[in-house]
Amino acid sequence: MTHLSPLPLRKALAGLAIAAALIGAPAAAIADDVVDAARAGGVIGEQADGYLGVAAGQTASADLRARVDQINIRRRAAYTERAAATGVSVNEMAAAVACQLLATRVQVGERYRDEAGTWRQRTASAPVAVPSFCGQ
Amino acid sequence: MQALSRTAQARIAAAGLAAAAAAGCIPVQVQAPDKPIEINLNVNIRQEVVVRLEGAARDLLESNPDIF
Question: What is the pTM of this model?
Fold first, then answer.
């Protein structure tokens, strides 16, 4: 992207991008095949802080990183809004969601980041280590 | 925040309300940041708060299937 293509081509590409965005918009994000494949493959995973991250030792393309960033930005907006409505901190709202995500969404073979910051992989014999702040 | 006296907190709150009144509305803004967010796992989380938020968290997940 360091050199620009001729203007008509750029306009056409921009038009295509807008059309793709409009068509793709309603289904969106985590029904995002790229994100889903990366999660299933253990490249990215849920973190104990309520956000998605790229697992240690894994390589993520710039495109995948951008998608993860977008999801995290939208998650933070959702946490912020709900935290304000509930009278708790954004981090606490995010942590409460992380407890749900880690307890119910991580499948065998997928990676997740525990509260100490260590990336782990769920295996058939090792259930997800849910953060201590989740209670129980 | 804890260092602020009650009066100081009240004054800040009053100033905020006054500003909101001057603007003619109570601002409720949630803006996505334009720079990458910093993920911080070293936050102090109160367990009793998290437990109390279980229902809200579940609701948030279910109502935002595009990001969870």
Answer: 0.67
Task: Report the C-alpha gap between A2 and A115 in whole angstroms.
Answer: 39
ipTM for the complex shown:
0.73
Residue pLDDT, tens place only, A31-41? 789 999 999 99
d(CA A96, CA A83): 11
CB contact set of A63 (below 8 Å; sequence gap of 6+) = A34
Q: Do A82 and B60 touch (CB under 8 A)?
A: yes
Tokens at B64, concatenated: 């935002």
Short-list A90, A134, A92, CA closest to A112:
A134
Give the separation between CA A75 and CA B17, rounded to whole angstroms: 28
Residues of A whose CB is below 8 A from B29: none
